[in-house]
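Components:
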Amino acid sequence: NAGVTQTPKFQVLKTGQSMTLQCAQDMNHNSMYWYRQDPGMGLRLIYYSASEGTTDKGEVPNGYNVSRLNKREFSLRLESAAPSQTSVYFCASSVAGMENQPQHFGDGTRLSIL
Amino acid sequence: AQSVTQLDSQVPVFEEAPVELRCNYSSSVSVYLFWYVQYPNQGLQLLLKYLSGSTLVKGINGFEAEFNKSQTSFHLRKPSVHISDTAEYFCAVMHSGTYKYIFGTGTRLKVLA
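Structure:
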């Protein structure tokens, strides 16, 4: 049972470098989400995709772009990394069309920007 | 603005003692409420959820939570904690008509031997 798989698990970047975080789910979920987790701030939504072919901004989208490649995959791209983007990034997925359904999370990508 | 407040950032408790982790939310519309647990270096796992019906909700690992609409609270409880319950716990609210969570800032539960 893979669930939600994120790659890589760890990454160190230099300021200004670009990077794509990958996420794939095997639960046939329609909705996918990207969060960042920072100490004392909980999880904040960056972008989400309610269904294949659609993406929407969340609470903190600046500096990020996303691509819903197909139903399984939802990637997050940092075009020009900044130290403020040092964080733990989580991808999640859920059944669409049922607003009260829980989300399933990956194990996270720990990203450091020097 | 809609928000979720977890007042306690850290809660130390001795093994086999009871614990309550507090969660309050602000919303003018119907909500669905969730508690998630995060163990070190892992993602979040669902503990329990309140969608409708009985206000007392039972979850995994012996946890339960009570929805109190008048106090806009959804506190998490366990009558007897174990060392293995040491983790961070997040309360989350999903507002009716949306597909997005609002998370609280988390409470670190540390169970002491």
